[in-house]
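Input:
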Amino acid sequence: MGNPFEELNEVFVNRDVLNEEYQPDEILEREEEKQAYAGALRPITKQNAPNNIFLYGKTGVGKTVVTKYMLRKLNEQLAAEEADEVTTIWQNCRSLTSSYQVAVGLVNQLRETGEQLPDTGLPSQTVYRSLYEELEAIGGTILIVLDEIDAIGSDDDLLYELPRARANGKLEGTRVGVIGISNDYRFREQLSPQVKDTLCEKEITFSPYDATELRTILTHRAERALVEDTYDAAVINQCAALAAKDSGSARQAIELLREGGDIATERDGVITEQIIAEAQKNIERGKIKDAIKDLTVHGKHALLALSQLTEDTGGDVRTKEVYQFYEYLCEYNGTDPLVSDRLRDQLDDLAMLGFASKYEHNEGRRGGRYNTYESNQAVGVVQDVLVDIELPDERYRQQTL
Ligand SMILES: Nc1ncnc2c1ncn2[C@@H]1O[C@H](COP(=O)(O)OP(=O)(O)OP(=O)(O)O)[C@@H](O)[C@H]1O
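Output:
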């Protein structure tokens, strides 16, 4: 028997080209956005104060990749002119839900391990002072990129403070510009007028890609990632069309091609349209599993109970039946169950998230009004993900209920 690795039919020349972290040397199909970005960054090349820039667009439409590209090009330009390069600080704000946390995140990026600030407990002004000290120590022009800036919510005074730091005498030798990135347009709308005026000094909107644009981006990647003749134009078109129809996200299109490549490598080394259809199903299944993992502990118990009952009864499960099994399941696993009204909320949430369907019944005076639920997920899939929750075996279940 040969080495199992030799049995694979490799389709990739360089699979990393289809990875999220890959930095393409060319940005395609974003000419207008690059122009607008260059315009917004231009004062820096003239030794003037930087603008603040706000980028908005749905997920996967190139906000990050274009920003990284533009910052690289900016420094290349400055180096060519023998001017001082700018310093960039990239802060993802995903789990940072206040100005305090973002400021601490920034300080800690700039400090050694032993000198980190605590996540809570200091007065905000102390944290801001530390931040200004760190920025002043770097000097020159500093661009602070706040990715997923919407996480900061309404606690946005850092976004007021930072751009005004120099005007307010907090910084002397340093110029700071903020680049905020978001895929939530409501965030921009809810900003206080003063913050909006400064942060959104220059705004660049990234629209979803259409199928033609995605085809260009994908073709360029495929030429660098895949062995010739392991795919054809129809496969590229299919990935582009599926992603354009769903989200307009280049990430989704690239992911489809990568997953297709993985499947083909385990088969006969050719990516076909059928394989891309399979890849799409795999990715969707993966997303469902991730979403189940993200449910609250009660959401998980409720979903497991509902999917088991859906399988046992064929669907249309009444709330009180779900409750009975849910309560039992919680106790079996050592979790305190919610009261039945709160379980109803959990079931409504599951329906809203697409995990379950809810049916409203009204049988007039005789039967009254009631709801039934049905799980859209097979109990096997749910149980595969929720390995921590034990489902008692059927005989035991029948006896107990
Ligand atoms: N115009 C483009 N040319 C080449 N690659 C692109 C282009 N646009 C997006 N990509 C690729 O698509 C993927 C997603 O892009 P990116 O991370 O920039 O999206 P985003 O808008 O920042 O999304 P999110 O809001 O989810 O962070 C990356 O792998 C990126 O390299």
